Amino acid sequence: MVLRATTSPSGAAAPASGAADATSAAAVDAEARVLDAASRLFYERGIQAVGMDAIRDASGVSLKRLYRLFPAKEQLVEATLRHREAGVREQLARATAGGAPPAERILAIFDLLRDWFDAPGYRGCAYINAYGELSAGSQLVASAVEQHKALWRELLGELVAEAGGPPRLADQLAILVNGAMVTAAITRSPAPADDARAAAEQLLSAELPPGPPGGRPVP
To answer: Which InterPro entries does the record match to this protein (predicted)?
Structure first.
């Protein structure tokens, strides 16, 4: 079967829809493979240690197409951070879903952290790592990291407000979350999640009103 060009209302030749769809699907597949490979390599080895040749080899996408998709490495780093965020959102949504009191759902976030820290290959927060490596020279990366951390702060803020706590409590909990991420990477232990959870329990007990709606944990 031969795919022929069609003609637009203006008389100009337009690509056949089947060919256009196939080209678009191939581009989406190539981009997904690049993002998956780059995200994994950047996290395992560090951004500065990974060149575009390594991403080409891991993704199976040619350098020509790779640079067509991401003309600069900075753009690829930003895209991998955005790519990761969907998975983080999904896991946070699952961890905080259900009809439990908001205080318990806040503590469930620290249980999720423990699962992350205990997983093979945990090397810290990919966003904090990227910020440490590139933020001084890349506003794109710095902005992606700041927006991701704002996501955590927003979620904590919503749960704290639902529990009847003061806004500053969300900031304090966010510090516990980020501190636990860094400490777990340095110590190579999931224990910082338990320590951060215990500290969060103390904060919740001190700051939330007893009983509904917060469901303040009992010390």
So the answer is: Homeodomain-like_sf, HTH_TetR, Tet_transcr_reg_TetR-rel_C_sf, TetR_C
Joined together, the tokens standing for residue 88 give 């983080």
* pLDDT(4) > 50: no
Sequence length of the chain is: 219
Cβ-contact 121, 184 below 8 angstroms: no
Distances (CA, A) of 151 to 66, 77, 147, 212: 29, 19, 6, 26
Please report whether residue 167 resides in a domain: yes
Q: Report whether pLDDT(101) > 70.
A: yes
Quickly tell me which residue has 């904090």 as its tokens: 128
- In this prediction, residue 209 carries a pLDDT of 87
Q: Are residues 59 and 152 in the same domain?
A: no
Same domain, 21 and 121: no
CB 166 within 8 A of CB 179: no
Token pair for 76: 């690829």
pLDDT tens figures, 147-160: 999 999 999 999 99
Average pLDDT estimate for 18-44: 82
Contact between 3 and 19 under an 8 Å Cβ cutoff? The reply is: yes
As given in the structure block, the two tokens for residue 94 are 């699952």
Q: Indicate which CATH number applies to the domain containing 104.
A: 1.10.357.10
- pLDDT of 10 higher than 70: no
From 52, 71, 90, the end of a domain falls on 71
Domain with 153, as residue range(s), is 73-219
